[in-house]
Amino acid sequence: MRFSLKPQDDTFYAFFNDAAENIRRGVGILAELGDDAPDFQKISERLVDVEHDNDQLTHRLFNKVNSTFVTPMDRTDMYHLAGKLDDILDHIEAAANLVYLYGLSDLPALPREMIEQITVLTQQAELLVEFMPKLKGLNASMQDFWVECNRLENDGDRAYRMLLVRLYSGEYPALTVMKLKEVGDELEAACDSFESVSNVVESVYVKES
Amino acid sequence: MRFSLKPQDDTFYAFFNDAAENIRRGVGILAELGDDAPDFQKISERLVDVEHDNDQLTHRLFNKVNSTFVTPMDRTDMYHLAGKLDDILDHIEAAANLVYLYGLSDLPALPREMIEQITVLTQQAELLVEFMPKLKGLNASMQDFWVECNRLENDGDRAYRMLLVRLYSGEYPALTVMKLKEVGDELEAACDSFESVSNVVESVYVKES
Amino acid sequence: MRFSLKPQDDTFYAFFNDAAENIRRGVGILAELGDDAPDFQKISERLVDVEHDNDQLTHRLFNKVNSTFVTPMDRTDMYHLAGKLDDILDHIEAAANLVYLYGLSDLPALPREMIEQITVLTQQAELLVEFMPKLKGLNASMQDFWVECNRLENDGDRAYRMLLVRLYSGEYPALTVMKLKEVGDELEAACDSFESVSNVVESVYVKES
């Protein structure tokens, strides 16, 4: 209840909720890579737009932070959290862009393990949208958030490692392996960025508690 | 002597000592990769156990931090330090697991430069076990710790660069190069994580002094 | 004007200006890779010297920070900023060293996109030298610094992605692709480090304002 007397705090929390929703939207578009005959170019272009929306959200938050005397969370923490949320969309946009740029659309399908990476990202985005509104109260239930984040990040690591095993199995020519690995690396980085978000939230909690 | 009146502080420092010991244990298992005819699967499985022990240590530390009113170091710093120690074992476990998963056991031997990377990690782990008990006093002798850490990290960088030169020499097929590089990258990341530990300790020292 | 009564502050700001100048010198040497028939070994050796000069600068700053009671910026921030400046030269030195070590001098020329990465680094270094002296006042004009940093980092990302497309086009043999990618990765990391510098400056500004 310590923040209840500062009504404008809601603007800050609303930003983080909007960013989470925007990430879910981005991951939803990325997941279309698993459809039959996806339009790789369109997916990439739509993700550039989503990333752009996020840049504008972040910009508005920073202006608000700079023009507000008392902020509900430490300025540096809000700054950090916004940066990590931004990283998620950067990596997702990069993954989709590389699929298109490298002409991986010529493959019969993306490797199953890569689609599994995207499934984990979808679950992480859902979790983020579910827990972000609870950031305001920062109560003990947040513990569930980072336990679950950690579990999903382990799932993501496993999918990534299985992708590498597949890529190095000799099924693809060397250059195709390199291209696919580049994409898998971006998806893995997006997965790690979700965990970084959880780590920032956890460190805020540790400080405030 | 500033902490001498808070007897429970020792629990915090004991955690960091235990984590250092655990890391030395992990690096010792990793070093068996340089033996004649090592059991790659067993090494990987034993390292999963060591990493799991570390996760439990970290979990106990975080609970302790959350339930203690006055902590001997800044909460965020303890949190950071535990995270960096955790990173070391993550990378070591990953390296051993990839050697096994990629079937690199089929090579007559791992490249000599990779064994040199592991030798550096062994020296870094010894250094950590030696200096961690001095964290409590945080006196000027810690300066030796980070000077030495820096020196070992340079040794590690050199071993890694020589590994890359060897891998790109044309001695191995392209896919084998990629697999070996993946392993070398994890060893290099473990080496860098040791230096991150040293950086956190140094920044604590800068703040406290 | 808040620091005007502490004359020795200038020593701290002088360090950051010297570090920026040193980085510009390093990037200037790196840019010689784009000349006709460059001496790859000499370029690499000269960059080792520049990096060494920077290590000494950093060492002097840390001693100063440790022996000064009131510092003009938060100790941890100065520590961070020096570390990020150091990262830039580490990556630049590594890039030039890998070009030499891998014998990439045998290629008719480095890929055009790689020279474009170096052009972006040159612009980033100029920007750093221009804005570093304004760190002392930390006034609103710093906003231009990070807006411009962000723009250049996007240019760098684009050059890097175009390099990857070229490398994976089938023009080079697989091992050459791997070597060139290693170099491009270091250049990209240098470009990202410039943005990290800007992020640290921005977070200092957010805290102080």
Descriptive report:
The structure is a homotrimer of 209-residue chains. Chain A is an all-alpha fold. Chain A has a single domain, classed as Phosphate transport system protein phou homolog 2, domain 2 (Methane Monooxygenase Hydroxylase, Chain G, domain 1), CATH 1.20.58.220. Chain A has 6 helices and no strands. In chain A, α2 packs antiparallel against α3, α4 packs antiparallel against α5 and α5 runs antiparallel to α6. Chain A is elongated and about 55 Å long. The first copy, chain A, starts with 8 loop residues before the first helix and ends with a helix. The relative contact order of chain A is 0.15. The N terminus of chain A is likely disordered. At the A-C interface, α2, α3 and α6 of A face α5 and α6 of C.
The proportion of residues in beta strands of chain A is under 5%
Tell me the Rg of chain A in angstroms.
18 Å
CATH architecture of chain A: Up-down Bundle
Helix and strand composition category of chain A: mainly alpha
Write down the CATH topology of chain A.
Answer: Methane Monooxygenase Hydroxylase, Chain G, domain 1
Unreliable residue runs of chain A: 1-5
Subunit arrangement of the protein: homotrimer
Shape of chain A: elongated
CATH top level class name of chain A: Mainly Alpha
Secondary structure tally, helices of chain A: 6
Could you estimate the helical fraction of the residues of chain A in percent? over 70%
How much is the average pLDDT of chain A? 89
Major pleated sheet of chain A: none
Question: H/E order of the elements of chain A?
Answer: HHHHHH
What is the CATH superfamily label of chain A? Phosphate transport system protein phou homolog 2, domain 2
Distance between the termini of chain A: 13 Å
> How many distinct beta strands of chain A?
0
